[in-house]
Each structure stands twice: as structure tokens, then as C-alpha cells.
Write a structure and sequence with these properties.
By secondary structure, the protein is mostly helical. It is 61% helix and 4% strand. It holds the Pfam family DUF6594.
Length: 280
Amino acid sequence: MTTGLNVIELGNPTRGGYTRLAKFMGDCPEVAIFKRFSSLSTLSLLHMQAELEVLQKELQEQVRADSSDQNRARYDLNWQDLISSASCDDDEGSRQWEILQKITKLLHDYRKSLLQQHELFKIASPAKPELNSLRAWMEFEHMGNIWLSGPDREIWTANPLPELVCLRPEAGHGAFMKFIGHKPLQWYHHTLGQLFRKPESDGPHGDTVYYSPRGLTRLEAVVSTALASLLPTASIAVLYVVTNMTQRLIMIGVFQLVFAVGAGVFTNGRMIEIFASTAA
């Protein structure tokens, strides 16, 4: 989690490039955001698919042509004869083997690209606050002050979230953790946190203050544990005080609702898991 101080004169105003940006992303992996190039990847797959389709037809035609020749007909019956045709003086004799070699290499690249794209799309897109933090850090004069002059300078500003991928997205945390990690954390830093955490103005990140997710995880654990401990006691006390049966049923429903909301806010459980725990 990153947050910046107000503009002060002690920062590092020199313009930064790839080296400073890489250092920042390495130290703060939550903002290690890159472009997917999904359209280019898909286009490459389409071209390889088309080429494989052409090669497949060429192979079928070559097999039919070889089967009509007494000497080359054995290529489709004996693999060793097909391999030996590669060293044959007759160019037509090795044509089937050449096509197979091209197909083997291209098919390997095609399957590898398919798997890579599948794995890439399983990586989550960055959260919008993380992307905004990275953009602000790059633009802020006394923080990153990144000035890229190449065609990639607008990658983090011109691309929508689905086209970007984060190497370490916010995962494994509930809504509470994701909420306090942004606006509340900035508010805390500007009120109390800046008294305890000072930026290393002469460091590579300028006036950047980094809050480790571990501290926020501990806070989330404390709050969730406290609520989980108090909720059963509070429900028993309320049901003990309320004597009207209709009101008791209503209170039971209220406490079940509070439990379900708390499970959704403080955990990253799936819908079926929250439903099962509430029903139990």
C-alpha cells in the first residue's frame, strides 16, 4: 500500500526512467502492473492457427501425391523410410518430411502460446486504487517523476483495467481489507501516520511512504476476531431480554444477516461457503 506526502522541497526532483520505475515496482509488487497485449496475443494465435491449417492441407495433398508413386508410397507406411527420405537426393522425396517438421515446430509454439495466454488471463487485473497510486507516483515530481519518451509512455494511462495485469494483485483479503487499504489509510497517514513514518527523501523513491499489507492484515484479523467473539454473546443477551416470540424470530434473522455480511466483508469466502456457514 502506498501513499504520498504533500509536496515538500526535500524530494528527489530529478527525472526518472525505467530503472527507477523497476525499482519501485520491485519494492511494491502491488503496483507491478503491465499490459496484457491480449489483442496481439490473439492475433498471433490466429495467424499460427491459419498457418497450421494450410500446412495440414499441404501434408494431406503431399501424402496423396506420394501414395501414387511406387517409391514414395512407403513414406505413409514406414516411419523409418519417411525419415530416411530427408537425405534423399530427390527433392520430392523429402517434401512430406519437411512439411511434418514445420508442423511439429509450429504446433509446439502454438500450444505453448495457448497455455501462456490461458495462464495470463488467470492473473487478475489490478485494482483501480493500485493503478491510480502508480499513476500518481509516476507523475508526482517529488516521488517517481517518471518521464518515459518512448511509445510505451502511455501504457498506464491509456489502457483500461482489463487490458492490464498485476503480478501481485490484492487477493486473499476481504472487502474490509481492500477498503481500509486506500482512503482510510491515506487519512490515517495524513493525521497520525506521518508522525511515525517519514519518507526517505534522498532514496530512490523520493517522498514515498510504503505501508506493508501485513499490518493491515493484522488489523483485519483483530477486528474480525473481536466481532466474531462478541456476536454470539450479543445475540444470546438480546434473545434473553426479548420475550416476545415474534420479536425473537426477527432478531434471529437480524443476527444471521449481520453474520453473513461480516463473513462477506472480513473474509474472501465464496458465495456457497458463506451461504453454508449462515445456514449452519
